[in-house]
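can u pls check wat happens w/ NAP
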Amino acid sequence: MKTSGNTVLITGGGSGIGLALTEALVRRGNRVIICGRRRDRLKAVQARVPGVSFRVCDISRTRSRHALVDWLLSEFNRLNILINNAGIQRQIDFLKGPRDLREADEEVTTNLVAPIHLSAQLVPHLRKKKEAAIVNISSGLAFTPLAVVPVYCATKAAVHSWSLSLRHQLRNTSVRVFEVAPPMVATELAGERNRPEAGDFVMSAEAVAAGVLEALGMDQYEVALGAATNLRAKREALFSAINQ
Ligand SMILES: NC(=O)c1ccc[n+]([C@@H]2O[C@H](COP(=O)([O-])OP(=O)(O)OC[C@H]3O[C@@H](n4cnc5c(N)ncnc54)[C@H](OP(=O)(O)O)[C@@H]3O)[C@@H](O)[C@H]2O)c1
């Protein structure tokens, strides 16, 4: 699909991969709207990248999500791409009992429930556009989990599975469904663990953004980047056989 002239919502556009995507998409002549919980981050992006609009929104909260969608539909009728990028990652140790489970709930709500709800709310609008897309940022850990972040990996595996089904359900509409699985990226997500010097398998947020744009431009609906290619060892080879 075209990679310029779109109107794009990027959840979590205030930092990391979302910020790199914002910059790359604006450079290509797209209108970009970002959201996140930290107003100062969003304002700083707006000051740095001309033409960016933002709304403070906690996508894990139903009311906040609804307000975001209402605002989008009234202010940005041209919206044709949703990038489900916002995410959180927590270390959860099941040997410690249920005390971390609130964090687990937050991960599930932010990484999985929110993208599902936002997509469901926006599909009726997106379907009216000649060309539209939903882009889900999953992870190489969707395919091979890292046990210290067990719930995070489970949410990403679920995002992968849901992306397959959503793509299938929307196959006869104008809405294309992309999934991009980055490898380890040096952002705030994992703090110290994802340091740029951690090795060759760490990718920059800018390289991930370039990968997303390439996937869009080439209509590559499922893409694993860098080291995530190896993590995606098992494919759903039978998917097309059981979904006619
Ligand atoms: N870094 C990696 O190694 C890596 C690898 C594979 C996949 N990914 C995925 O890439 C995506 C982006 O992560 P990142 O690495 O760029 O980390 P990041 O810099 O921490 O970015 C995450 C963004 O999500 C926003 N966010 C978190 N919870 C939110 C909520 N409830 N409502 C609205 N916005 C929320 C954050 O903004 P606020 O805090 O201001 O809300 C932040 O801007 C995530 O889905 C992540 O799982 C990352």
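The radius of gyration is 17 Å.
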